[in-house]
């Protein structure tokens, strides 16, 4: 958690290109993008414009908070101490860690499913009757023996990979981004090879310039912008965990700008692969449904070699997304919460232990009880925390902080405030949280839910400025 040594600030713009690529390259992102462009009968140009505008917003906000950590070399939990107090930062940052661990467990469950499919395909080719054995028909907590083996293997694999520090982080994101883009390219070539003319004809039919500026399309533009922004917002608050390694602000700026390139590139792959797969499925079995989920596509094509190939790429993409979006933020918040008791490895063990309960009980319990509304409510505090940090650093403290005091827990620290709690900051965050969470629980405001992060950030920003700027 200490400030990064200037000699270790070696990330350039390409590293952030890989970082954003990894964050985009997920099953959820693929399905979301393909659905927006194809499934919902929306104007292609309007969806493209909303996607570009959302990426510009993400670029702007990631630069705002990323430059603070880049300059001072500190991760999000430590940065939060400056604005909210040493003790308060432990608990507020811990909320980000808990949410990260929850989604780490859920993502691990789905990663293990890819391994389950690989095991089942391998066993089937060894013995076609093997799954008639009684041992494979016994389920405990909705999981059979193959599910349990795959889940345990996935947790062990992630522990071995993810506890190696930030040098491994840089190498793994680079490998994953290139590997997955290569897989998408190969998959696209396989899809295009026999249907290229018809495929590009269908793609061109999606593009329409008629009545772009009518009221319906303006509503669509706002909705798409909010949806795409909400997808990326989870990484914004803890972006300092990664921007702290940037060589300089110029490299960080260029790297964040590459989000736009990644989004356009991935959207191109998602749309063409979905359209191409639809033509293949119609040729094979006259499918009446358009599939936008990669696992559904490979399952319907029913090609074992293609299935194994695709599952490997899905597994790598899911592992890397789990690493940067869930594991690293959780690791840093836990280290900040118990700095004297945890290190990288013990922290990894704790994350795996807690996340294992989430993964085990996800299918039989957690996915059935409407837990996501509660999770969304907890996440409503992240926007207000972002607004507080930005306002405090740029407007109140005017980019001047005392580095040594960030790591002091005594009363002499400039950030000790009232026993480690900055009451004005907490009040501002609470007000922002009320406004953000109201878009979830107030039925009259639910149309604003995709903008809850921005609403919370803006409310907290304005509230804190007015109460903290008064002498």
Structure overview:
The protein has 471 residues and is an all-alpha fold. It has 19 helices and no strands. α1 packs across α13 (304-337). It is globular and about 70 Å long.
Give a quick summary of the entry.
This protein is mostly helical. Helix content is 74%, strand content 0%.
Sum up the structure in keywords:
single chain, 471 residues, mainly alpha, 0% strand, globular
Task: Give the secondary structure arrangement, pairings included.
Elements: H1 13-24, H2 27-39, H3 44-72, H4 76-84, H5 86-126, H6 145-162, H7 166-192, H8 196-206, H9 215-236, H10 240-243, H11 249-285, H12 294-301, H13 304-337, H14 344-362, H15 371-379, H16 382-396, H17 403-406, H18 423-441, H19 452-468
Helix pairs in contact: 1-7, 1-11, 1-13, 2-11, 3-9, 3-11, 4-5, 4-16, 5-6, 5-13, 5-14, 6-14, 7-11, 7-13, 8-11, 11-12, 12-13, 13-14, 16-18, 16-19, 18-19
Biggest β-sheet, characterized?
none
Distance N to C terminus: 33 Å
Question: How would you state the average pLDDT, rounded?
Answer: 88
Total beta strand runs: 0
Order of helices and strands: HHHHHHHHHHHHHHHHHHH
How much helical structure, as a percent, in the residues?
A: over 70%
Number of helices: 19
Measured on Cα atoms, how large is the radius of gyration?
Answer: 23 Å
């Amino acid at each position: 958690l200490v400030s990064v040594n200037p000699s270790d600030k070696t990330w350039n713009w390409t590293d952030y290109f890989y970082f954003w690529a990894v964050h985009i390259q997920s099953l959820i992102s693929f399905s979301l993008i393909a659905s927006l462009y194809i499934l919902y009968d929306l104007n292609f140009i309007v969806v493209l414009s909303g996607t570009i505008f959302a990426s510009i917003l993400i670029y702007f906000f990631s630069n705002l908070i990323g430059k603070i950590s880049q300059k001072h070399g500190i991760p999000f939990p430590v940065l939060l101490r400056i604005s909210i107090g040493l003790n308060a930062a432990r608990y507020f940052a811990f909320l980000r860690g808990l949410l990260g661990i929850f989604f780490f467990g859920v993502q691990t469950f789905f990663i293990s499913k890819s391994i389950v499919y690989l095991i089942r395909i391998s066993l089937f080719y060894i013995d076609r009757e093997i799954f008639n054995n009684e041992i494979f028909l016994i389920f405990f907590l909705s999981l059979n023996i193959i599910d349990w083996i795959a889940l345990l293997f996935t947790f062990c694999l992630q522990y071995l990979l993810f506890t190696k520090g930030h040098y491994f982080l840089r190498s793994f994101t680079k490998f994953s981004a290139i590997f997955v883009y290569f897989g998408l390219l190969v998959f696209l070539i396989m899809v295009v090879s026999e249907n290229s003319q018809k495929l590009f004809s269908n793609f061109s039919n999606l593009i329409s310039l008629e009545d772009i500026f009518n009221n319906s399309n303006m509503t669509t533009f706002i909705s798409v912008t909010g949806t795409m922004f909400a997808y990326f917002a989870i990484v914004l608050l803890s972006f300092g965990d990664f921007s702290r390694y940037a060589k300089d602000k110029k490299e960080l700026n260029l790297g964040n700008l590459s989000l736009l390139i990644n989004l356009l590139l991935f959207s191109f792959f998602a749309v063409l692969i979905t359209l191409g797969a639809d033509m293949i499925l119609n040729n094979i079995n006259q499918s009446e449904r358009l599939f936008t989920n990669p696992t559904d596509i490979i399952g319907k094509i029913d090609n074992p070699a293609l299935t194994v190939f695709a599952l490997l790429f899905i597994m790598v993409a899911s592992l890397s997304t789990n690493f940067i979006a869930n594991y690293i933020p959780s690791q840093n918040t836990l280290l900040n919460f118990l700095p004297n008791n945890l290190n990288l490895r013990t922290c990894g063990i704790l994350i795996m232990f807690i996340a294992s309960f989430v993964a085990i009980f996800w299918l039989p319990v957690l996915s059935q009880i409407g837990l996501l509304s509660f999770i969304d409510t907890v996440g409503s505090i992240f926007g207000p925390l972002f607004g507080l940090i930005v306002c405090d650093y740029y407007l109140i403290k005017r980019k001047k902080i005392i580095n040594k005091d960030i790591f002091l827990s005594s009363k002499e620290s400039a950030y000790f405030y009232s026993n480690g709690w900055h009451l004005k900051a907490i009040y501002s965050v609470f007000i922002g949280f009320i406004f953000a969470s109201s878009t979830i629980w107030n039925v009259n405001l639910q149309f604003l839910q995709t903008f809850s992060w921005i609403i919370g950030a803006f409310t907290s920003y304005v509230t804190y400025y007015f109460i903290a700027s008064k002498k």
